[in-house]
Specification:
single chain, alpha+beta, 2 domains, 7-stranded antiparallel beta sheet, 8 helices, 19% strand, globular
Length: 252
């Protein structure tokens, strides 16, 4: 499979969904991890999908649409009234569609690099059926692999986190930049097929807006994952695991 074939397949990919486990995307997603240019395109594609999804959520139904639908049901047997209401529904649907398209056409290219979107994207990567680029319990090998592949490798772990067993690492993409994903195992029972239940993402802090100030971790829940984000030096750290605030605080 070449890059163009992978793009054609991934055009149908929906981020933060079950698509990552769909066999039809497996080979294309594997190529994303090997091809930096494809990874950059895929990151922008996922951002467009997220933005489009957010746009649809913000659309409000036209005023009186509920009452119109009810009246249509009551007057179903009146053909003339049914045709008139159907025409109104078509007009309303067309207006909504035009509003959505106008929003997409007129707005500037997506460049949202906020902490909230970054956090959602990285947690999504952890919850999907990802494959680690390197499987090892040796922290030094992980740093060496990340450095060789030009991903952040000079990260500083909290003292408590150095006591947690590592299981490997992967390299994720964010707005065309590389993100180091270090995988840990806390010792809790894992579901079949899982290799880790604690993830640390490291990126250059200047690539994410609204990064927390040094020494002030920000906690946030994304689905069932509790996350903590903090900065140290020139790096932004994002730690995530399933559980509550206590589960994450004891690792900081």
């Amino acid at each position: 499979m070449n890059r163009d074939e992978a793009k054609n397949i991934l055009l149908l990919y929906r981020p933060d969904s079950a698509d990552a486990a769909d066999p039809q995307f497996t080979e294309a997603l594997s190529l994303v991890k090997q091809d930096a240019e494809l990874a950059d395109w895929f990151g922008r594609h996922c951002a467009r999908q997220e933005s489009l999804r957010a746009t649809f959520r913000q659309i409000q139904a036209p005023a009186g649409l509920k009452e119109q639908i009810i009246s249509e049901q009551a007057a179903r047997e009146k053909i003339i009234v049914w045709r008139r209401n159907t025409g109104l529904m078509a007009v309303a649907a067309a207006v909504v569609a035009l509003l959505v398209l106008a929003t997409l056409w007129l707005r500037p290219p997506i460049s949202d690099n906020s902490l909230a979107l970054y956090r959602d994207r990285m947690v999504g990567a952890a919850l999907r059926a990802y494959a680690m680029d390197l499987t090892t319990d040796n922290p030094a090998q992980i740093r060496s692999y990340l450095e060789q592949n030009r991903a952040p490798a000079d990260y500083v772990l909290p003292a408590s986190l150095t006591k947690v067993a590592v299981t490997g690492c992967a390299i994720q993409s964010w707005q065309g930049a590389k993100v180091s994903m270090i995988c840990f195992r806390t010792g809790k029972p894992l579901a079949p097929g899982e290799q880790s239940d604690l993830w640390l993402f490291v990126i250059d802090r200047t690539l994410v807006k609204n990064a927390p100030r040094a020494g002030l971790p920000q906690l946030a829940k994304v689905n069932q994952v509790i996350t903590a984000a903090w900065t140290e030096g020139d790096k932004l750290y994002l730690l995530g695991t399933e559980g509550d605030e206590q589960a994450i605080r004891q690792l900081l």
